[in-house]
Write a structure and sequence with these properties.
By secondary structure, this protein is mainly alpha-helical. The chain contains 12 helices and 10 strands.
Length: 523
Amino acid sequence: MQNSEENNIPLLEEIIYPDVEPGIINRALIETCYLEDAHRGEERRLHQLEPVVLEKIKSIRMEFKNILRIDHLWILPNLTKLCLNFNKIEVIEHIEMLTELKDLNLSFNLIEKIENLDTLVHLECLSLYSNKIKKIENLESLEKLVILSIGNNLINSIDGVNRFRFMFNLRVLNLEGNPVAQNMDFPLSEYIITLLPNLHYYEYTFIKSEMREKAQIRFCRELREVEYMQEKEIQARESQAREQSEAKRLASSFVDHLDGNQLFDSFWRDDADGRVLMLVGQQAQELAEEYEKDVFELTQEIYKLGLKRFVERDEEIRDFMDNLQDGQKELQTLGQREIEDFLQYKDRVFEEARITLRLLEQNVMHGDDEDSLENLKLSDIMDKLNVHFEDALNDMWLVLMSQELHLHETIEESTTNFHRKISDMMSKFLEQSQSFFVQLREISVHFSENMTEIVTRFISTKLAMQDFEDVPPELRMCMYDRDAILNLIAGMKDAHTFRIDEREDRMATRSKEFIDNMVNKLN
């Protein structure tokens, strides 16, 4: 039997790919397939005389074309249906840009892995039947998927099936013909029915309520485990979404990483000198705790200020955008009114022209001379109608252009005023925050001065008593060198003020970028 199947393969390929050279999808193939599929006979011949408008193509079938690789589909941005079944495609690739795709058929190919489908968020029907796929993966982002067929592949594990629970629109699923479905001790159909309560059809068979109840009894323990893990994942996702939303809000407020002790912690990150000085004893530790408290209070002031100014800016931006949209809608309404008035006038003129032409035709049919008085009068009426229509068309164009120009000037003026107002708001925010950064630097200097006294007293006491047992090894080399001690303290102060300056500069730079990006986007 196996030898018979092997002997049939060349014959099958001859039938499927008659005189077709293996190749890659290109523009010529796309246009040929479109004309073959969309038009027949004389209609196709006439369409071949005109260039194919690729942007208008919604559906295309490229079946039995001996295709080895997918390419050039980016020239079909509005494609909603793509059939590439019965080819020799090995990799799903170069389809990421087809974001409008709803129906994708890749059946009867040589695909080994499900991949590169993440951007196809509107996909509703996906067929990967009869390929060489070994694993269920990379499908979870297809939230609108309704029909999925991955039967007759090489899938030998149920891993990945539980991810279908996050595809809430999935109604039809087919896994028949896979090794995992052939295990007599593990009825895959019952497992699928249990795990996917929204599924209506499995292997093209309607799922009856008694079938589902029977399956749920058998796999109740597995279902509880999957539901528990799913609930944990949903909670983790929600928590991550909240964190990302909060991080985005803080970033837009320019006070991210200022809601806690992040700034203070950054002081010591690369401050080897400061960490050495903290080893002198309890007094230094107590002073550092007080230092941390003062820094935290000031960063909290900056944090609150940033959030407050963010709310004010956000409200100003929303008001501006609303006014902008209102202006555009008003222009559209006025323009539509002009066009509707013109179309009504056009209908009247065309009707009058039809009547006039009919009279002229009747006169000619009755044997009247074209230069007769009545025909000349009718011709004069047609000429006047033509002139008046051209004048009306030109007047409408001038009105529409005038409205467009007025809107353009208004938006330009509004954008300039908005830019000025947002810039003023940002400047005020930076000025207020700068006063807190000045205080942070003063606190850092004050801490350094107090540390100088504590370290000097500590060393003096140890020298007087010649007691060096509890002196940190890092400080022993500086015991007789006051300048070395002062250099350690100066290094600590420089490290801390550098972090303060860096955070202040970052805030100023990002606020400027925010304004520039917003104005560029508006323009």
